[in-house]
Amino acid sequence: MPSSAPRLSWLVSVLLVLCDVSLPAAAQPSAGSPASGNGISTNCIAALVRDVLAATSTNVSAEEKYSDVSRVVNSFVESCTHGFEGSSTGLRPLRILGVTGAAAAEFAQLTSDFQLNTGYKVIFEPVAYTDVVRELEFVEPTSPLVYDGWLADGSMVVELAIHTKMTAPLDSFVARDSRLQWSDVTEYVREISSTYGGATVGVPLSGRPLALMYREDVLDAANLTTPNTWEDMVTAVKILNGTDFNGDDVSDFSLCWELSDCAWHGTIAVSAVLATMTQTAGPQTGFLWDPDTMAALGGTAAMTRTMELIQQLLPYTATSCAPINPNFMRGDCAITIASEALFKGFSMYTPFKSLIGTALVPGSKIALNRQTGGLEACTPALCPHAVRERTYDGTEVLVNRAPHFGIGGFSGFVNAYQDEEHQQAMFSFFSFASEPVYSKHLVMTSMAVGVYRKSHLDTNAQSLAAWRALGYDDAAVKEYLTTVAVALEHPNFVMDLRMLNGERFLGTLYTALLNASAGMAPAEIAANVLVEQTAILASSGALDVVRQSLRAGLGISVASPPPPPPTPVVVVVSQRGKSETNVAIILGVTIPLAVMLTALLIAVLVVRKNRRRSMFGGHLVPPPGEDTTLVVTDIMDSTVLWETLGPGVMECAIATHNAIVRLALVKWSGYEQTTEGDSFLLAFHTPSDALGFAMQLQANLLEAAWEPELLQHPFCAPVTMGPSAALLATREVKEDDDPDPTSACQLGNARELVQSLHAAAAAATGDEPLIMVESATSLDSPARRGAAPAASTMAKFMRLAWTSEGSPAAAAAAGKSVVTVFKGLRVRIGMHSGVEKVDVELNATAGRVFFTGVPLALTKAIGDAGAGGMVLMTKETFVCLHLDRALKDMGVLVLSMGKHTFTDDTLRGCLCVYQAIERQLVPRLAVFEPLRGLSELQPGAMDAPIGTVCIAFANMVGLATLQAWDKDRADVALDAYAAVLKQLLHDAGGYLVDLTASGQCLVAFHHPLDAVAWGAGLIEVMKHRQWDEELLSHELCEEVLLHEPGGEYTGGSSPLSRRVLLRGPRIKIGIDVGKVQADVAPLTGRMSYHGKVMNRAARISSKASSGKQWCSATVWEKANGLLGGARLLTAGIRGTQLGAFSLKGVTRRVELVECSWRHGDDAAGGSHDPSSSAGSRPITLGTGRETS
Question: 304-331 burial, b for 16+ CB within 10 Å, e for fewer?
Fold first, then answer.
C-alpha cells in the first residue's frame, strides 16, 4: 500500500516526538522480539500503528472513526501494556481518579506504602470530589480504560450507578479477601454506604460521623450538662456567649458552627437539625424525601422550626469554612459540631486536649407527622427510636436523635471495564488501605480518614496506649470513640442524600441557610424550599425513576446487579509475514507507556481540545501563554445595594448571580480561580472562550428571575429603549446639505487650540505671534465665509437615537418596538490576554492555581474602569480574537474606547481599551457612562466625529527611499513624526483613523479650524526638531533657508533674515470637508469613513508640495467662519490662494488654498501671550540647524 507509507511515517514521527523517545542504536531490539524490562513489544507497536491507520482511513463519520480508534487503543492497552517501569509485578501502573487538597497528600503516602509492600505502582489523577461523576461520564464513551479506580463519597454511589456502567460489583473480591475482614466494618458502611442494588460496589476508606464537641471546663463552670435537645443548645449558647474562654481578655462566641457562608458545611448543619424532626423510624424512611410518596419533607413545618432554631443560634456563632474550625482550636468558643478531624486537631495541637468532651448531636422532642404535616411531641409510635432524656427545664421527654454520617465517608471503586487482573490489583490497593491494622493507623494519624470499623472504636488498654503514644489524652479518646460507636450503631442514623440530583436538592438547604442568615421569615424560607425542590424534581425525569434512585440509595429495593461491562475488543497479535516484520524492524525501538497514552491523545485530541480537557479528561487549568485570558467580574454599586435593600433580597440576588456565572463558566471551559466579595476571578484557555462567557453572562443576567424588591431599586430596575422619533424621521442627507452652526463653546476651544499651536511654533522659530495681519491673497471674504459644521459624535448620536420607553408593558401598549437593555444586577467585566510563567502560582494546600502579577492587575483595572453591563478588554485580547475569527462567528460588536493612561500609580504605561457588546444590546451605548479611573490620550470610536467631518491626509514624503538609505535613522524619524502627530492631535481634539508603517496618516476633525491649525502646527514643529546630522545630510531631509531683507545688520551689504523653509522629513497634508458614512471597522474596532470627501482629501494631499499643507477653499471658508468674522490671520495662520485644480475622480475643478503659519514681518500689530490661552500646553521643540 504505497499511499499509506507517508501516513505511517507521519504517525510514527508524531508518536516519537510527542513522547520524546531517544533511539540509541545499541539499545534497539531485534525485530519481532518482545520488549525487555520496561517496554512494549515491537510487534505490538506495529499492530497499533497499523490498526490506527486502518481505523482513520475508512470512509465513515467522525464519530464512528473516533469510536474505531478508541477500540484500537483499548485493545492495545489490554494486549500489550505489561511490564512497565516502576512496577515489579509485570502490570502497568494503576491509575486512580483521586482527590485534591490535603487529602491528596494523605493518599500519596498510602500509595507509597502500597508499592513498598506489594510492588504495585499507583498514580493519582487529582480531581475535585464534586467532579468525579462528570469525569467518568466523560471518559466512558471514548476511553473507559483510562482509570482503574476512583475515590468518591457515599452520596455519589447512586449517581455513578445510574449515569455510568463503570462501577464493578465487588462481592466476589470481598469474599476471597480474608485480610479485609468485611464483618469488622460497621453495619451502616457495610450494608448501605458501600452498596447499591444489593451488590457491594465500594471499599470503605474513611468515615465522617458528626459529634457534639465541647469544652468540659467551660460547661462545668457554668453548671451545664451537654444539651440533649436543640432548645437546650440555644439555652446553652445564650448563657455562655460573651465569656472569655481562653484567657486573652476578649469576649468569645459560645458556638463555633458553619451556619452562614460555607456551602458544604452549611448543608450538613441544616440536615443535622432537620433530620431530628423528619426522620424518626430509621434511615430507610429518609430525612428529605419520603421514599414511598415522594413528599418533600424539606418544605414542611419541620423546616420552619429548623430555620427558627438556626436563627436563634446565629447571633452566638463564630463561622469558619475550614475543615478544622480555627476558632475552636484557639479556644475562642465552647461548643461545636464537627467530624473526627477537629477532634484530632484539637487533641494534637492545642493545650486544651484534656478538656475536650464529646457527645451525641442534639435531638428533637418534636417530630413531623407525615400524615398530618404538623409537628407533634414525640411518642413511642411517632418516634420509635426516641429515648427519654432530661432537658434543661428539668423535665424528661422523649428525644429523637438522628446521628448524621456527614458526607457518608470516602470509598474506593473499581472500573468494570478493566480485565479481572487489573480489577484485582485495584481492589488489592483499596483492601490494603481498608484492612483493620493499616486503616486504624490512618485513623489515628490522618486528618482525612475517620472511623468506620468496629476495631477502630476499641477502647481497651492496648488501643488507648496506641492513641496515647501519639499524644492523645486517654479520657478524651475514650469518650470520643464511645460516642461515635453509639452514633454509628444508632438505629436512626442519617446518611447523606443518595438519589438523582441529590447535590441540587441539598443545595436548596444551603439557600435556606443563607435566607435565614439574612433574616427571612422561617415560614417563607420553608415555602421557598418546597418550590425549589419541586422544580428540581420536575426536571429530574420520570418520577418513578427518581423514586427508585432514592429507594436504592436508602438500601430499600434490591435490584439486579449491574450488568457486566462490554468485553474489550482484543487484537491477537499473531506471527506476522515479512512485510509486517519489516514495519517492526523500522520501528525497532522499545517505546515506554507514553506511546500508548500519546496514541490515545491523538485519537481523542479534537474532542478533548474543544472541551478544554486534559489527556485523561480532567478539567484543564489554562497554562501560561498569550492566549490565556483572565476575566474579572464585578457587580456595580453592590455596596449601596447591600445597605439599602431589605433582608434576604441581596442574598438571593447574589445566589442567583453566582449560579449564572458558574453555569456560563462550565459551558465555556473556564477556571474559577477565586472570588473576592461578589467579584469572580476567572481564567480561560482562549480569548474567544472568555468573550463567549462574557456575552452569555450578560444575556443570562437579563433573563434571570430577580426578586421584585430588587427590580424596584433604581440601580436594578428594568430599562427598555426604543428608537427615538428623531431617528425614525431622519431623512437622507445629501452631500451639499448645509451643516448646523457651531456653538460658542466649540469656537472657544478652536481659538485656544490655534493660539496654543501658534505659540509652540513661535517658540521654536523665535517669531512673535501676531494679532493683526494684512494679506491680499487671503480668501477671508465675507461673501465666501460659510457656517462651520456641527460637532457630532457616535455617543451623541446614540443618545439622540435611542430613548428610554419605561416598562416593556407600557411600550407594548403604545405599539412601540423596544429592547430591554438592563434588568437586575448590572455586572461589569474586564478581560486581558497573555500570562507569563512568573504570573502563575500553585497553592499546594488549596490544590489550586492562582494567576497573579501584572496580568491580573490589568484585568482588575480595566474591569473597574467600566460601568455595569460593560465588557472591556485590552488590546492583547482584541488582537487574539481576530486571529481565531471569533468576532465574526459570535455576532459581537467591538469598539475601540481609545488609548488611556492610569490616573493613579498602581499601573504605568498606556492602555488601549476595547468594549465588546452583543448587537441586540447596542442601545446600551446610549446610557453608558465614560470610563472611570483613566486619562484619555486618544479618543475612542464613540467620540469620533460623524456627519459633516473634516478629513486630513498627511504623508511623510520619501519614507521608502530613506529606509533604503538608512533604515534605522528613517525609523527614528518615523517614530518622531508619529509622536508629534499624536501629541498635537490630542490638543486639537482630532480622531486618528489610521497611521500606517509607510507614514500615511488619516485624521478626522469636527471642525475645519482644528484641522488647519493641526496640520500647520505639525509641519512647523517637524521643521524645528533636533534631527540627526546624518539624516539632515540626505536630500529628502536637508535644510532649506530663505534669506530676505529685514534682519539684523552683520557687516554685509544689507541686513538679511533667514527663515527655515524645509528641514528634516518632509510632510505634506491635504484637507477637505463634507458628509461621510461612518462605520466601525471590524479589524480595528475604530471608526472608518466612506464618502466623496475621502477621495478629495487624498487627492489634495497628493497634489500638495513637500512641506506644505493644502486644503479646499471650502475648508478655508468654514475655518474663517468659526472665528465669527475675524480673520484666520488674527490667529497667526495665513492662506494663499493657489487656483483651481483637477483632481482624479472629481468631476469639477477644486479651488485650493495653501495654509501655513505666519512669520514676523508678514504681520502687523501687537504680540500675543500664549500663556493667556487656557487650553494651551507647552511643546518642547529642538533647536534648528542653520546652513549656509
Answer: bbbbbbbbbbbebbbbbeebbbebbbbb
